[in-house]
Specification:
Largest sheet: 17 strands, mixed
Strand content: over 45%
Distance between the termini: 58 Å
Number of strands: 25
Order of helices and strands: HEEEEEEEEEEEEEEEEEEEEEEEEE
Radius of gyration: 17 Å
Number of helices: 1
Structural class: mainly beta
Shape: globular
Length: 180
């Protein structure tokens, strides 16, 4: 019979170099790799790679997140993030460049970035693009990407580039749409 590790202990194990959690994640200083399986929550610093991982609780990454075929509850990334065939079931916040392809955000998406690229991706809620320097920000919606809510640019100089039958069902606030 497997012994269940409390959530706080699991997070502590993930933060330690060389530790693993239930055989799903392996960590070295500055780098974490997680494979197929469930993780209660995920908190890490540095480069994090996930492939087939289900994070049941919150995900907080301070660094680079590369995720493929993974599922998340909520996501908070202080750095760049790339999602490929992923599902984020609650709100997501990325403070860096974001690229998502064939993914689904089931809540609002907040981004601190000059360029955000969504390819064949659904945002079932709003996209909020927060203030950055320089003030011009671009959201690229490619290949059937869809935003069911609004796209809001804090700085008022935003641009949504629509390509490949992509669309915003709500309003674009603080910017304009350009179809290409």
């Amino acid at each position: 019979m497997k012994k269940k590790i409390p959530q706080i202990a699991a997070v502590a194990l993930l933060a330690l170099g060389g530790a693993s959690y239930a055989g799903v994640c392996k960590s070295l200083p500055g780098n974490m790799n997680c494979g197929k399986g469930n993780v209660e929550s995920l908190e890490a610093n540095g480069s994090v790679n996930l492939n087939g991982t289900n994070v049941l609780g919150e995900t907080v990454i301070n660094g680079l997140l590369m995720a493929e075929d993974s599922n998340f509850n909520g996501v908070d990334v202080n750095g760049n993030a790339e999602f490929i065939q992923c599902s984020i079931n609650h709100d997501a916040l990325v403070k860096g460049a974001l690229k998502a392809s064939s993914s689904k955000f089931n809540g609002s998406l907040g981004v601190y970035s000059n360029a955000t690229r969504l390819i064949n991706t659904l945002v079932d809620g709003d996209i909020h693009v927060y203030h950055t320097n320089p003030a011009k920000q671009v959201v690229y919606l490619d290949n059937f990407s869809r935003v069911t809510g609004n796209v809001v640019f804090d700085d008022g100089q935003g641009e949504v580039i629509l390509r490949g039958q992509s669309k915003v069902e709500g309003k674009i606030i603080g910017g304009n749409a350009v179809s290409k």
